[in-house]
Amino acid sequence: MANIKSAKKRVLIAEANRQRNVAFKTSIKTALKKALALASGDDKEALNAAISKAYQLCDKAVSKGILHKNTAARKKSRLVLAIKKIAK
After folding, report:
1. Which of 12, 43, 66, 68 would staple 61 via disulfide (CB 3.0–4.6 Å)?
2. Which helix (H) or strand (E) element contains residue 21?
3. CB 36 within 8 A of CB 82
């Protein structure tokens, strides 16, 4: 553990940021799972809304520095491929 006051504060701030990032990544995973669940149904509007929400969360994570841009692109690409596979 750090001895300097500012270093102790940075440890606390880093932990708070880590927890916030984990929560955001979890929300992305949930959005992806919801979109996949809707893919097997007949409600196209709900599916499109779920895909849009997943895309929005991925893009927001990139802009906040939570995800790398290629990671977000991969997640979005795999989501669409999985939905197309289910739709067949």
Report:
1. 66
2. helix 5-39
3. yes
pLDDT digits (tens, 9 = 90+) for 61-75: 999 999 999 999 999
The hierarchical CATH code for the domain 28-87 is 1.20.58.110
Residues 37-88: tens digit of each pLDDT:
999 888 899 999 999 999 999 999 999 999 999 999 999 999 999 999 998 7
Could you list the beta-strand ranges (E) of 2-87. none
The H-or-E segment that residue 61 falls in is helix 44-64
C-alpha distance from residue 36 to each of 15, 33, 57, 68 (Å): 32, 5, 15, 22
SS3 25: helix
Task: Using alpha carbons, list the distances in angstroms from residue 62 to 2, 11, 49, 52.
Answer: 31, 24, 20, 15
